[in-house]
Amino acid sequence: MKFRSRRRKPGRVWPGFLFFAASVGAPLFAFAQVNATTDYLSRMDADRDGRVSLPEYQDWLSYAFDGMDRNRDDTLSPQEQPGGRGTPITRTEHRDRLAERFKRQDANRDGFLSAKELSAPPQ
Prior knowledge:
The protein is mostly helical. The protein has helices at 15-34, 37-44, 54-61, 63-68, 91-105, 115-119, and strands at 52-53, 75-76, 89-90, 112-113.
């Protein structure tokens, strides 16, 4: 009678481990997201004054636009947009939309976003 080794081959992942990691890691990941508001503020706050100005907000949130604008012409053509449809969007239009969102988030109307305002649901 031969004994077969139960040793896993290198590079293979035990399926039970994946389930365990997902069930234990998911709540920890969610917890980290909730506590990351001040970290998010510090990343957006380029001048480190403890608040986010409109240009800082627009610059930070333009990463998606930059990633989709493959030909770097400052316009998202329908082919560059998700689903390959839509009307062209210029960088100026994109920044104008972000300015409107910023204005709605600025609850105290001081022209800056605090950590509390950043973490609040959109208005």
